[in-house]
Amino acid sequence: MAKLEKVSPFRLTSLLRLQKDPNLALQLFLNPNRSPKPFRYSLLSYDLVITKLGRAKMFDEMEQIIEQLKNETRFVPKEIIFCNIIAFYGRARLADRALKTFDQIPSFRCQRTIKSLNSLLNALLSCQEFEKMREFFVGIDQYAVPDVCTYNILINACCLCDDLDSAWNVFDEMQKRRIWPNAVTFGTLISGLCANCKLDEAFRLKEAMVRGFRLKPNAFVYASLIKGLCKANELSLAFKLKDEMLKCKIELGSRVYSTLISALFKVGRKEDVIGVLEEMRENGCKPDAVTYNAMIYGFCQEKDFDAAFGVLSEMEVKGCKPDVTSYNVIIGGLCRDGKLREANELFEDMPRRKCASDVITYRTLFDGLCDGMHFKEAAFILDEMVFKGYAPRTASMMKFVDELCQSGNLKLLWTVLNSLAKGNLIDVDTWRMVVHMVCKNNKLLNASDLVETLQMP
């Protein structure tokens, strides 16, 4: 029997790069030759397997590899590996693990620079840990000298908190430190100003960007301004700005056109949407799900459901698969218009259309059925929702239980409570409401059974 060919360190990196399954990549890394003999891993092989595990959110397994990396003496890990790890934790909203990784970098004999600090600040921003961001920035000099990326992250945090005064203070401080702002800096500030309806300041900043800093506005800057103008119903200026983008040969993405389409529906100019779609195609911008969903939403707001369904059909003809948002918008519109049977039929037809419902789908239909006093159907949707691991909005659930208590429909109430108990969704307020109703109606014989239901894990 022929011996199995041994895997070299170089061969291992090639195999890891080709392996799509993170579990198989991990097994291959841990035992490349199926032998107890030590294996001389390369730094690249560590980087590859850590990246695959981090993207798959297999964090415990990733930590196992990181701990093994710490014991390597043949090389020093590069800082970019830790930047990536911190980013993985940030996207997973695991701020504590991101902080721990940053603190451990020196134990790998790797020097921390502004790159890892920026990665940490960005991770904390993703986790909305604004106070921890502030603490790190106050003591930033003990780690590294801040750069433009550092300040851009801080400005973004201020804008997300709607604290524009602090954003301006950060902008002023970076200039005092002789750190030149870039297009991202201005784009973030302009986006924050537009979101807070400060359009005059946003346009002044755009002019300062060009004249004072010799920077060309990018697509993000224009998109933010157009969105702000549409929000303020300044459509003529929005279209003028769109034309300026074309003149400056800045690529218009589908989101800019989708914003304009939504604004046209909002002001009752749906007949102009066809012209926008034609211009999109002429400029080589293919309508996508965002574009079509903007049209679906507009037709639903006008209660023109035939047209909304027509857009769904057009999407399929044009090779653009409707996403769950497409269906959620129509289901929501039908529910608001009291067309509950049609909404439920579309919901049940989603699997045939190869689109899985999500928590928004269930919540939208559940709320609609409750508002329409279709309690039996709402109870059925609630049970299915809980079975799939979803939960209704707390306010909706409380309102539903209250309606059942007021109507005295104890049989259906009992069914609903059992469904809620399966998902561990019964809180103290629900307990009080139901117990009060049971006692008020002298149903004390059922009270002990009710307590057992409410205590289900």
UniProtKB/TrEMBL annotation:
Segments passing through the bilayer: none
Coiled-coil boundaries: none
InterPro entries (UniProt xref): PPR_P_subfamily, PPR_rpt, TPR-like_helical_dom_sf
Alphabetized UniProt keyword annotations: Repeat
Domain of life: Eukaryota
PPR repeat boundaries on the chain: 147-181, 182-212, 218-252, 253-287, 288-322, 323-357, 358-392
Family: Belongs to the PPR family. P subfamily.
Protein name: Pentacotripeptide-repeat region of PRORP domain-containing protein
Organism (species): Camellia sinensis var. sinensis (China tea)
Upper taxonomic lineage: Eukaryota, Viridiplantae, Streptophyta, Embryophyta, Tracheophyta
